[in-house]
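Researcher: Structure for this, please.
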Amino acid sequence: MNRANSLITLALLATTGVGVTCVVQRSNAPHIAAEQRQLESRKLLDVLSVDAYDNQPLEQPLALTDIGLSHSLLLGGYRATKAGQTVAVLLRSQTEGYAGRIELLIAIDANGRLLGVKTLEQTETPALGGHIGEWPNAWLQAFTGKSSNQPTAAGWALKKDQGQFDQIAGATITSRAAINTIHDALRYFDEHRTTLLGSAP
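Model: Predicted structure, token format:
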């Protein structure tokens, strides 16, 4: 009888433990999901400094038109604001590299200058074009501060093509694709500046 009582007590404790665990997990689930979203958002938005904006850009996607650009395709756009003023527009852009698609997140300030570029997806050759996927990325940082017309259109090319930019070692096609995509995004910003900057939500 003692053994039967012990087994019943053990079963009741186990059931209670499982029940309490389920309740705690359910009550914490929204908080955990919010934390996960914030972490993913921060990872995506680390082209911007944390104190540069105070909204949730990814929760306010922009409606983009004319998304087929000269060398790339716009997949989405977001507006970062601080104290009600637009501080940056982020354009998610896709192009073809040497081994497949390259997806870049391109951050542009309200004056049309590049704040930063991050590779979101790529399938380029490891140790060659694959370097474009590294973060932080010294090669991509070289574009910071540039605008659609600084350098000139001719300057938006590799040095080997009489332009102003070095290439990723051993990755000419990857480098050209990235340069063209960044320039596309800057030109798109200039052409759609009013819509992209908009009014603060």
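Researcher: Any notable elements?
Model: The chain has two domains: 1-44, 50-197. DSSP finds four helices and four strands in the chain.
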